[in-house]
Every structure is written in C-alpha cells, then in structure tokens.
C-alpha cells in the first residue's frame, strides 16, 4: 500500500529501477536483535522513511505493517523489536537526521520490559473486569468492576507520553479500548495545545504522528479517533489552578460517564497522561492529586524520579479511590530513549499540528474556509490568568471565589493570528456554562480590520460562525503566517 | 470490588497458608475452607491462587491442594464454583497427568462426587455443572483408551519378540482375580474422596498411613510389607531405596536388597492386578517383574546391570511413594540400599526378559557398552526401537475396583512438560541411569496427543501475570512468555496496517471485514482527493457519550457536520430513500407500521415511488421512522434499497420526516 496521498506525487518505481531510486536517496538496512531500538531524530526539514523488511517491530507499542513505508518528519522517536527485525531506512537527505541503535545486552531492567510487564498487569485486571461485566450483564455494567485507571507522571523528558502511547497501543492490540486522557495543556492529544482532551482508542494508531488525526469529511486509511476536549488556554496548570481543576472535573465526569455506559471502555479503563511535574512544585502536586482523585486513578506510575515517587507514595498512602481501591504508586526508570525536545522544536511541532488541523498533511489535503465576520456577529471570551488565587484551596467552598475564569472581549488587533476555540454553548450563556462547554473546533484569526469592524476567520468547516461563542487564551501562542 | 493490592496481599497470605499444607490434613483443609468462606470478596484471587498452587506444587502435594478446592466447592459453593469451573479442566488434567496412580484414583473418586449433588444438601444440582465435568471425563476416557491400545500393541510386539521359546505367562490373570482387597485399605478412600469425611483422620493421600499427618516422611515405616514381604495383597508400600545414590554405578549392590524391592513391587502389582484384571499393562508389568526376579535369582549379573535394575526399581518405588526427597536414609549395612530383609521370593521361570521391564533399548544400550555382558542369557536380539520403556508404576492401596487404569502417556507428557520444574529422572540408557518411571512401553513417540484443555483454552493473561506486582523490581524482570501474547498468538498481521487477526474462524471473519474496509476506504480516499475535504467539527458531549467505537465500519466516527450539504462529503447521512410503488394492491394500501400513516407517492425518474420508504423484510416502513426506531442501524440496508441504478434522488422532495433523522443535525450550520 502506498501512503495515501503520496501515491499521486511519487508513484512507486517499477521493479528494476531500484538502482535509479538509490541514486536519489540513501537506503540503509538496520538489523535489530531482540530489545534493540532504532532511535531517530528527524527535523522538519527532511523525512525519514522506514520500512519493515522482515521480523516484527513496533513504535510506541504499535506494530509496523510489513513492507509498508512509514514516512516520519519532525519527530524524535524510536522503533523497537521484541524478536528481531530488519528495517530499511530511506532518507532524501542522509545528513539531515540523526539515528543510532541502542543495543542492550540483557532484557532485564530495560525500561521497555518494565513497561510491558506493567501493560500485562493491566491486561490481567481488564480480563478480570471483563468477567465481572459478563457476570453483571451488559445492561448493568455499572455494577461490575472498572478497568484499571493508570496515570503516568514524571519530570520533563521522562517519556510520559510515549509510555501512555505504548500502554494504549498494547491494550488496543489485544482488543481493548482504553480511554486515553490528556491532562497536560502544554501538548494536545487529538487536539491543539492548550486543550484538555480524552478519547477512546479502539483501533490502531497512526504512528507517523503523535496521536493521529481527528475526524474530517473524508475517509482516512487509519481510523480517526473522536476526542472530547475542553479549552484551558494556558500553558500550565499553575497559571489558573481553579480553571484547571474545574475542567479536569468536567473531563472526569464525562469520561466516567462513558465508562459507566460502554462495556468495552469500562473494561479497558483509562490511561492518563500528565504534564511535566517538578519535584518542588506544590501546585503541580496538588493539581496531580486532583487528577488522581477525579479520575479515580488506582495506579500512579512515576517515571524517572525517586523523589516524586516517594512524595506521591506518601501522599496517596492510605487513600482510597471512589471505588474503594488502594492507590498504587510505582516508580520506574525514565524511558531510555527519551530525549530533550527543546522549545524551538516544540514550537515547530505545535505550529505543524495547528497547520495540520486546518490544511491536513502530505497524505490528506484539507480545505479550510476563510470568511469575513462582523465584530458584532461573534462572541469572544478570553481565559484569564489567575495568579492571585493560585494558592486558594478548591476543597473548601468559597462563595467569594465565584468570579469566572472567562472575560468577554471585543475583537481587536491583539487577536490577530490567535487560535479561537468554538465551543458547544449558546452566545448568551453565562461564562461558567461557556467555560464548561466542550470544544467543537478551532478557528484561526486570519486578520482583524478594526476600521471596518470585521474579522477574517479561517474555519475548518465552511459554515457560518457566530452561533457559538469562541474562547481563547494565551496558549497556544498566535501563529503567524499559518497560510504562508 | 476489592482492590488489586488488597486482593494481592490476601492472595499472598492464602498462598503461604497453602504452602504449609504438606499432607492431607483435615483441619488444615477446613481452615483454608473457612478462610475462603469468610473472604468471598477475594474469591477470584483465592481461586486463582489455589489453582496456581495446585499447578505448581510437587506432585505429592497436589492431592491435598485439590482437596482444598473440593472442600471449598462443597462447603462454600458460589462464587467459587464459577471461578474454579473456568479452569477446572486445566487444573484437573494438569494434576492428573503428574500424579501417581494412587492419587489418580483419588482424583477419579473426587471427580465422581463432582457429578453428584453434595451429600446431605437439599440442592439437587451437581457440585459442578456437567459442562464443566464432562470435558474432563471425556479427556480421561480418551487417554485411557489410547493408553490401553498402546499397551496391547506393546504386548503383542513383545510376544513376537520373545518368540516361541518364551514361556507363557506364568501368572494367568484368573488366579489373581479373587485376591481380596486389603481390608485395612478400603475404608481409607470412600467414594466421596473428601478427606474430611474420614473419621479416623487418615487421609486418602498416599498409602494408608495412619500417621500421615504427623510423619509424612516415614509413612512406610509401619508397613507390614517391610517385615513380611510375602506376596500377600496387602503390601501396599515398600521401602524405596535411597534415591541419592542412583546417579552413578556403585559397588556392592546387594542382590538381596534388589530382590526384596522387586518382591514388594510384585506384591503390589498383584494386588493391583486383582482389582484391574482387565488391564493388560498391569499384567505385563507383573510378568516383567517376575521375570526380573528370576533373572536376579538365577543369574549372576554384572554390577552395571544391577545398577540399572536397581535404579529402575528405585524409580518405580520412588514414584509410587511420591516422596523421593523424604525417603529415609538407608540402613548402613547395605549402603544406598534401603531394604534389608532377606528375600523370600517365589521361584520363577528361568527364561526371562529384562526388556519387558527395562525396555529393549535400555538393554541394548547396556549390551553395547564397553563392559560387555555376555552372561546375560536373554536370547532375543536387541530390538530396533530406541524407546526407553518401563512398565507403569503401581499402587496397592487403592480399593476401588472400578477405578480405571492410569494413562501413562499423560505422565509422559507431563514429564516432558514439566521438564525443568520437577527435576526429571535421567533418561539416557547409555549412561546407566533409568528412564522416566511412567514411560509408555514401546512407544518411542507420544502415544497420543494430550487432550488440549478445550474448555479453558490457552493460559489466560491473568494466570500468566500473577507473578507481576507493582514494584519496580518485579516489573523489571523479563518474562519471555509474555511476548507472544502481543505478537504471534494474536495471529497474522494485516499487510496494510499491521493489525493482527487470529487464525481461527472468528479472526478470519474479522479479517475479511477489515480488508473490505481497507478496500473501500482506499477507494474513497481516491474519490475524496478529487473532491476535496475538510476537517469536521467535533461532536458535543452528549453525542460523544453515546458514541461507541466502531471497528472496520465505514463512517464509523460521527462528525457534527456529517449532515451538512456540501460537495465532496462522502460521510453523509443516509441518502433520501424510496421504493417503487408496489404492484400488489394489498401492499398498495399498507401503512407504516410505526406511525400508521400512508406513504407519499411521488414521480421520480419516470417512475412512481414512495418517498422516505424502506422495505424491511416484507414490511414497508417510513425510512425515517425506522431509523428512529432502530437507532440508525438500518442505514446500510437503506442504502441498498435506495437502488444504485436509479442514481441519486433529489434531496428536495419535500422530505417529511428526514430532517429529524439524527440529533447530530441539530448542530448543522448552514452557510
């Protein structure tokens, strides 16, 4: 199979012209022994095509299809194998990427092995729940147990998201449908950055992107996942802990409801990704504890920090989830291949994701729709930072703290190039309703004409804007030249 | 639901308690039953722990553990019946394969009680439902049949080998038939099989050792057979020689001691034969033992052969005793030979066959060794079969005449399977050591396939991960047996996306659907590329909650714009549906069964049709009514009925109901 969309651009060379193709691009073959990893870093400027020639290999838990080229760009990741495999690596720019093979001698102690064991422990719990669901009957699944809710946390660059992806992919491969929750506003999952989201993963993931795409009008070769997302609009939970908590509670309520109704998801449980956790951040720990309690997390995995492990073990000792389970805290090594992704790289990734949202990627061209909208026809709210209340404790009822996290703003030049989220609420709803509404999609402010009082908005769907309120915050940052 | 950790801790405690259960002790079993009764919230963990324990422990400890299972089932019942029942086949057959014949009888008796109601209970249902016990029975019958056939085959082969010069069996079956069952044995194993029923506290496990609970290692000390080794029927046990010294040939093996051992084996075999006169394997073995005895008495065998014989005897004995490591140290006057009483063996025929006991291959190998043994007078040529043969071991203290013969092949399978777990006896004849005790004679390869645990299937992921705990050290340990669960055991890969599909019928069906999906999607991608696409809106929370993930279904993921009227959208809601006006006058007057209204007739494409109509079976519905009633599941059928030849009907036919087709359309934004 050719990669969809690529087929028209670069038809596969007929047999016999391999030599001609080799002249254009450099092809290398990498053979991996069990537990070896092929680690690569591809900048945005070039691509790396990996083809599994024989054996079995996987990326973040998702198996590569045999003899299928996977094109990677703007990615730092790895391909590993449990058995052996032979990979064919092709790049138009051999000097443009970095790659090496990690060759552990002994499987014991490699981080992948511990992740795999962890995954199988979750599988066992799922099998157990499956039986209790079968015993309780499909119509009464809330009486049955619930699959494991596992949260992955740790300091920056410890491989949290990779582990979440692995646990998700392994569960999916064995026929489970885990609810994947992203509580890290810095990165989006099936959503733009600044968004908290959740989605059920029932099918294979698109390994050439972080999480795959969201639904579009056309078909996709890899099934899209349908996220439920809420706009936080800020980079870190510390910037508005109150709003963060409210949205986490919203997300938890929705996902828990889904788990109460959908037996496949209930059995599979949740896999929760979190933002970077600093050992010294009290706010960060509090926010994490809120996530743990709201999602009834019963397994907390800490990557790469003994200190955080100890802190959390102490914190959750004796605590029970809403289902009466103990909260297990286990510290594991950071993902051995995790690399630092500097802010410039992340900025480039963020921009690429936003661009992909509107325009698609090389495999799928999307056509967004740009329209002029009068200032008066739109309702725009802005997320405010809340530094003053950073330390206020939400566990106590405080009638004075009812001030909303949103403020209504007039369109202005300051909004240019911003990303606005369109949410499922009415334009006349009160700020809290708008804050609690889930995201329908995003529009990009292509231009602001203050003289004519008109906004130029690029929307993914050619529909009238203005029936729904739009919300934005400081994050993601304005994207200059999206169309350029 | 109890938390993992709690259950895990509990299971750990329970496992430790099980470890302490060395013998069939009623009080211990009652205690464990009580624990299980009082902790049904951990029933699953207990059931798993116990079944794993049964699987793991040495064969002589399996029966007590099985009795714990039996006791829990009979005294507590649900939910344990459910949990044990799932893996009962596996647990039972696994244990059955690895225990000696005596224990098998006990297990047979226990199985029998499982098919009956609990004695004294008002519940008339059997302990386990028939669909749990029947597969076990079937497997046992199959195993026995195969074993018997193999035995008979072997017997015939042997007759041929021995030829005319060979004496007829000196002990025809008839004389033994009336041998009484030892009276001191019979009460110790009632049909119930449940140890708690024994008022004297003597368990059915092992020989009728009254002191089993206290002196498990010395059960045989009080055996009458030791002092009076005449071939009476009630010589259930004999002293197995000390197993430690078998590894290498030793000087000074006492022929007398060997004779004595053989004598006891003969006695045991006779007693068993009396109860199973139709079992040719026992007959064969008994004859072989008698032959061996006469060899020893009439010929002067070299030491290395004596070692071979002694080891063989010891193997048999050790297997029967099932307490190899605990066998008392031999008396000093005969080093490495345990039993010293003088033999009082009956005379036997002079021409004998070692092969019948040791296997032809063993003897051949022996003969081939540097120390030639010309004085062996066994005349038959070394058979070509390389098989390591030995008669199955026997037990004496089994009172149930109906108890079937054991399946030696099961034992063999088990030995192979357990290789590494339970130290298997050395099997190379050339090394002078002895074959596996339960080996099927004359069967170089597996005599019949071990019945697969058809009920339970492969080991579940739960069982395979029981040893993993949420600790870094446990998680870091590599478990190679888990890898296939993500790869090969999931089937073969889809060549397009890498997803795996099992190779069974269900997997093939799924794969077909999956490949269809790929095909259609690829087709549509090509179409969509021409038409242009755009990102969709996400659905709102309510719709998201109602969404169920669809696998390999086109248009499975809803978008909030799927009803939007725009070009290029291939994920549209079902098209306008209609059917030709029926010719049948009865049908012509039909109404929609859901709304009881008539259908609206319109002229379309040079034909009168009923718009918004859908034919399901022989009834005609309003398509929109039907969609509402069935939750949209009929959309596939609807597309079919809309007729490809007719082309797309105009969507402006004043559709009566279609605009309320889906809640999603609430969020349509018109340009």
TrEMBL record, chain A:
Pfam families named in the record: Clp1, CLP1_N, CLP1_P
Record-linked SUPFAM superfamilies: P-loop containing nucleoside triphosphate hydrolases
Location(s), subcellular: Nucleus
Domain annotation Clp1 N-terminal: ranges: 31-128
Clp1 P-loop domain segment(s): 154-359
InterPro entries: Clp1 (IPR028606), Clp1/Grc3 (IPR045116), Clp1_C (IPR010655), Clp1_C_sf (IPR038238), Clp1_N (IPR032324), Clp1_N_sf (IPR038239), CLP1_P (IPR032319), P-loop_NTPase (IPR027417)
PANTHER family: CLEAVAGE/POLYADENYLATION FACTOR IA SUBUNIT CLP1P, POLYRIBONUCLEOTIDE 5'-HYDROXYL-KINASE CLP1
Subunit structure: Component of a pre-mRNA cleavage factor complex. Interacts directly with PCF11.
The family this protein is said to belong to: Belongs to the Clp1 family. Clp1 subfamily.
Protein name: Polynucleotide 5'-hydroxyl-kinase GRC3
GN (gene name): CLP1
UniProtKB/TrEMBL annotation, chain B:
Entry superkingdom: Eukaryota
Entries under SUPFAM superfamilies matching the protein: ENTH/VHS domain
Record field: compositional bias (Polar residues): 188-200, 220-237
Pfam families, per database record: CID (PF04818), Pcf11_C (PF21936)
Annotated spans, Disordered: 160-253, 370-407, 423-443
Residue spans of biased composition, Pro residues class: 169-185, 379-394
Biased composition (Low complexity): 208-219, 429-443
InterPro entries, alphabetized: CID_dom (IPR006569), ENTH_VHS (IPR008942), PCF11-like (IPR045154), Pcf11_C (IPR054127), Pcf11_CID (IPR047415)
UniProt xrefs under SMART domains: RPR
Domain CID residue range list: 6-144
Name used for this protein in its record: CID domain-containing protein
Lineage of source species: Eukaryota, Fungi, Dikarya, Ascomycota, Pezizomycotina
């Amino acid at each position: 199979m050719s990669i969809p969309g690529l087929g028209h651009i670069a038809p596969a060379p007929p047999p016999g012209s391999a030599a001609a193709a080799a002249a254009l691009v450099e092809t290398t073959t990498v053979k991996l022994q069990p537990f070896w990893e092929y680690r690569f870093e591809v900048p945005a400027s070039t691509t790396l095509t990996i083809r599994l020639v024989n054996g079995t290999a996987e990326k973040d838990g998702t198996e590569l299809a045999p003899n299928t080229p996977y094109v990677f760009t703007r990615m730092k990741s790895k391909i590993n194998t449990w058995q052996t495999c032979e990979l064919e690596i092709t790049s138009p720019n051999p000097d443009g990427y970095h790659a090496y093979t990690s060759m552990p001698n002994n499987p014991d102690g490699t981080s992948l092995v511990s992740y795999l064991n962890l995954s199988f422990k979750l599988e066992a719990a799922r099998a157990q729940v499956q039986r209790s669901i079968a015993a309780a009957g499909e119509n009464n699944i809330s009486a049955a147990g619930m699959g494991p809710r596992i949260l992955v946390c740790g300091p920056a660059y410890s491989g949290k998201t990779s582990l979440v992806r692995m646990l998700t992919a392994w569960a999916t491969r064995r026929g489970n449908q885990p609810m994947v929750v992203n509580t890290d506003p810095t990165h989006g999952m099936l959503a733009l950055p600044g968004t908290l989201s959740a989605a059920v993963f029932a099918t294979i993931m698109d390994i050439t992107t972080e999480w795959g795409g969201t639904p579009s009008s056309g078909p996709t070769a890899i099934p899209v996942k349908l996220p439920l997302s809420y706009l936080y609009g800020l980079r870190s939970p510390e910037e508005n802990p109150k709003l963060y908590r409210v949205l986490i509670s919203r997300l938890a309520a929705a996902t828990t409801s889904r788990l109460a109704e959908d037996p496949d998801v209930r059995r599979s449980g949740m896999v929760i990704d979190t933002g970077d956790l600093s050992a010294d951040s009290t706010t960060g720990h509090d926010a994490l504890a809120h996530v743990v309690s709201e999602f009834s997390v019963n397994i907390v995995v800490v990557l790469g920090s003994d200190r955080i492990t100890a802190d959390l073990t102490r914190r959750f000792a004796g605590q029970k989830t809403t289902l009466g389970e103990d909260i297990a805290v286990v510290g594991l090594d950071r993902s051995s291949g995790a690399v630092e992704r500097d802010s410039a790289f992340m900025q480039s990734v963020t921009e690429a994701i936003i661009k992909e949202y509107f325009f698609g990627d090389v495999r799928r061209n999307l056509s967004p729709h740009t329209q002029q909208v009068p200032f008066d026809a739109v309702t725009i709210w802005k997320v405010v930072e809340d530094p003053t209340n950073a330390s206020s404790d939400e566990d106590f009822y405080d009638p004075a703290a009812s001030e909303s996290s949103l403020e209504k703003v007039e369109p202005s030049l300051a909004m240019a190039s911003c990303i606005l989220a369109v949410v499922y609420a009415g334009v006349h709803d009160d700020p809290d309703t708008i804050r609690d509404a889930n995201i329908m999609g995003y529009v990009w402010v292509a231009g602001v004409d203050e003289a004519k009082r008109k906004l130029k908005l690029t929307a993914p769907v050619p529909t009238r804007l203005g029936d729904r309120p739009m919300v934005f915050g400081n994050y993601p940052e304005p994207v200059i030249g999206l169309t350029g | 639901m109890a938390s993992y950790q709690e259950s895990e801790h509990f299971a750990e405690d329970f496992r430790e308690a099980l470890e302490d259960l060395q013998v069939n002790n009623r009080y211990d079993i009652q205690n464990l039953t009580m624990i299980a009764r009082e902790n049904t919230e951990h029933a699953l963990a207990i059931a798993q722990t116990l079944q794993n324990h049964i699987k793991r422990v040495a064969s002589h400890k399996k029966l007590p553990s099985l009795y714990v299972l039996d006791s829990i089932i009979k005294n507590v019942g649900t939910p344990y019946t459910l949990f044990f029942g799932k893996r009962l086949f596996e647990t039972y057959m696994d244990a059955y394969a690895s225990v000696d014949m005596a224990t098998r009888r006990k297990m047979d008796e226990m199985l029998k009680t499982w098919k009956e109601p609990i004695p004294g209970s008002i519940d008339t249902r059997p302990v386990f439902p028939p669909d749990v016990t029947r597969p076990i029975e079937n497997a046992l019958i199959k195993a026995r049949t195969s074993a018997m056939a193999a035995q008979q085959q072997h017997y015939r082969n042997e007759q041929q080998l021995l030829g005319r010069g060979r004496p007829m069996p000196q002990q025809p079956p008839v004389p033994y038939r009336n041998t009484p069952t030892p009276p001191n044995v019979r009460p110790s194993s009632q049909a119930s099989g449940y140890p708690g029923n024994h008022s004297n506290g003597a368990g059915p496990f092992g020989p009728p050792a009254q002191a089993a609970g206290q002196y498990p290692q010395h059960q045989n000390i009080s055996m009458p057979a030791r002092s009076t080794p005449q071939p009476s029927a009630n010589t259930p046990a004999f002293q197995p020689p000390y197993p430690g010294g078998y590894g290498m040939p030793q000087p000074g093996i006492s022929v007398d001691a060997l004779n004595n051992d053989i004598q006891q084996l003969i006695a045991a075999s006779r007693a068993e034969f009396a109860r199973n006169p139709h079992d040719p394997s026992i007959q064969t073995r008994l004859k072989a033992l008698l032959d061996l005895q006469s060899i020893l008495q009439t010929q002067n065998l070299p030491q290395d052969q004596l070692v071979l014989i002694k080891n063989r005897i010891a193997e048999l004995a050790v297997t029967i005793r099932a307490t190899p490591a605990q066998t008392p140290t031999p008396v000093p006057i005969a080093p490495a030979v345990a039993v010293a009483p003088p033999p009082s063996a009956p005379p036997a025929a002079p021409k004998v066959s070692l092969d019948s006991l040791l296997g032809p291959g063993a003897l051949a190998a022996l003969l081939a060794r540097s120390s030639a043994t010309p004085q062996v007078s066994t005349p038959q040529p070394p058979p070509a079969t390389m098989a390591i043969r030995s008669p199955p071991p026997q037990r004496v203290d089994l009172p149930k005449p109906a108890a079937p013969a054991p399946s030696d092949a099961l034992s063999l399978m088990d030995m192979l399977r357990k290789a590494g777990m339970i130290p298997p006896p050395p099997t190379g004849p050339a090394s002078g050591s002895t074959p596996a005790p339960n080996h099927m004679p004359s069967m170089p390869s597996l005599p019949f396939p071990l019945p697969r645990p058809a009920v339970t299937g492969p080991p579940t992921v739960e069982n395979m991960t029981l040893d993993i705990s949420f600790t870094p050290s446990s998680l870091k340990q590599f478990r190679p047996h888990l890898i296939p669960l993500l790869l090969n055991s999931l089937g073969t890969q889809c060549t397009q996306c890498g997803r795996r599909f099992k190779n069974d019928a269900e997997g093939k069906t799924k794969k077909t659907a999956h490949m269809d999906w790929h095909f259609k999607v690829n087709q549509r991608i090509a179409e969509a590329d021409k038409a242009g696409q755009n990102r969709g809106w996400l659905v709102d929370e309510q719709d998201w909650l109602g969404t169920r993930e669809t696998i390999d279904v086109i248009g499975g993921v809803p978008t909030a714009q799927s009803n939007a009227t725009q070009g290029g959208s291939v994920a549209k809601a079902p098209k306008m549906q209609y059917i030709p006006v029926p010719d049948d006058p009865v049908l012509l007057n039909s109404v929609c069964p859901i709304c009881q209204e008539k259908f609206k007739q319109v002229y379309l494409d040079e034909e009168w049709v009923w718009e918004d109509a859908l034919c399901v079976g022989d009834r005609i519905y309003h398509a929109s009514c039907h969609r509402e009633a069935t939750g949209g599941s009929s959309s596939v059928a609807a597309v079919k009925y809309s007729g490809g030849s007719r082309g797309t009907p105009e969507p402006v036919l004043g559709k009566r109901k279609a605009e309320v087709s889906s809640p999603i359309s609430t969020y349509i934004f018109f340009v």
